[in-house]
Task: structure prediction
Amino acid sequence: MTSPSTEQGGIDGEDRPAPVALVTGASRGIGKAIAVHLARAGFDVAVAARTMADGEAREHSSTVKRSDTRPLPGSVASTSDLVEQAGGRALPVYLDLLDRASLGAAVRTVEERWGRIDVLVNNGRYIGPGHMDAFLDTPTELLDRHLEANVMAPLVLTRLVLPGMLERGSGVIVNLTSLSGLSDPPAPVGSGGWGLGYGMSKGALHRVAGVLAAELGDRGILAFNLDPGFVATERMVIDMADFGFDASSGAPPDVIGAAAAWLVTTPEGPAMNGGHIQGQDECRERNLLPGWP
Result:
């Protein structure tokens, strides 16, 4: 298998086994698509999430007003199967963004098994109440959970993978960002807007890539904000209609999977280091997913 490479920084091009990517939130949706497209691009993929097997029940209601523990489609196991069907090796890894011990255990597992992590994709985020609740209805501890899962966990993971990347002189960090972190909602939450916890945590995460690029770009580290735009994930279809979001208008997750695989392998990466990448725009303009739109 030929290793992806970039001209400067990013994934090095030395003769070695396939490069390794760790993708969080990879049991379904955008994370699943990114994992599969990275496998198609020649990566071995550590598939990380909480839902290890299909049918596991967890709280995924976005509001404190009700509970919803219906199993969602997808799991680490099913994504791992897709990764292997796409030509990569898959390593199923349990990871809970609200449990820092699990973050360290996940990175250790990948590095002990495969010896390296070349790409970290911080795609996973907090799922649960407070996501789509008005500020006055959102308990402060749920805002803490947003910050822990959406900001601190990606930072912890980044610090864990950077030593190996710096030793090798190459590595890529991709943070999935959101328009909600850059702009005000178009309407109140529940009518097409979003909760404060989501927006403020995505806004904080958005600042990370530029700092990493400024501090570590000359040591071979590339860091990007990848903005997926509105995507019709499984959870968007199942959960979000009640809050004013019509999944039928969203792009398929494969659009962002293709954009992510391009981003971490393109020779243009160093010129974009620290930048904000619009996934749907890049996919459309570069014809990364033939037949879309």
